[in-house]
Design a protein that fits this description.
It is a single chain. The protein has seven helices and no strands. It has 188 residues and is mostly helical. It has a domain at 56-181: Four Helix Bundle (Hemerythrin (Met), subunit A) (Up-down Bundle). It holds the Pfam family UbiA.
């Protein structure tokens, strides 16, 4: 997302070398974080062998991340809801455990569908390209129905797949939108 948005404001200057180096670094740090998290979960008995710039930030950057963050949180929440009993035995406390299944379903639905609402609002106010991620909406409805019916086993994995396509369509929507039609990128 950052690459697409930066390319819109950099005056045509783009470096594939910087992009590839950044991707390698981000993927390495993310993988290391996942590895440490998985190791700690394994040591604590939560998982088993089978599961398992200039330092400034603009507010607009965070705003562009909200749809992806909510969608990603839906993945984590579906995983926590599926694993309530395993986590309870391991002594963990999760939001899903605290609020119970019914409210977990409500939270999951909010995390899942608010990004789509944001894209509709964005399309109305800024660029019609922001409707592109809505291509994934039928799958989102299917996953919400399966969650509601307590068919949770594969939802985290399928949510991750949905998040990938959702993110790709979001990136393409931002890429295709003229910079002046995207909120907060260019000074008014």
């Amino acid at each position: 997302m950052g690459t697409v948005l930066a390319s819109k404001t950099s005056g045509g200057q783009f470096s594939w070398i910087i992009l590839l180096a950044t991707l390698l670094t981000v993927l390495s740090v993310h993988a290391a974080g996942n590895l440490v998290n998985t190791y700690c979960d394994f040591v604590r008995g939560i998982d088993s062998k089978r599961q398992s710039d200039d330092r400034t930030i603009r507010l607009v950057t965070l705003l562009y991340a909200i749809p992806l963050a909510l969608n990603t949180e839906a993945i984590l929440h579906s995983n926590n809801t599926r694993d309530i009993n395993v986590d309870r035995r391991a002594g963990c406390v999760t939001i899903a455990m605290l609020i119970g299944y019914r409210l977990s379903h409500v939270l999951f639905a909010l995390l899942l569908f608010i990004p789509y609402i944001l894209f509709v609002v964005g399309a109305i106010n800024y660029s019609l390209w922001l409707l592109l991620p809505l291509i994934t909406l039928p799958k989102a409805f299917e996953l919400e129905r399966r969650f509601r019916c307590k068919q949770l086993e594969s939802i985290p994995r399928q949510m991750a797949r949905l998040n990938f396509y959702f993110g790709m369509f979001y990136l393409f929507a931002c890429f295709m939108s003229p910079a002046h039609r995207l909120p907060g990128l260019l000074p008014r």
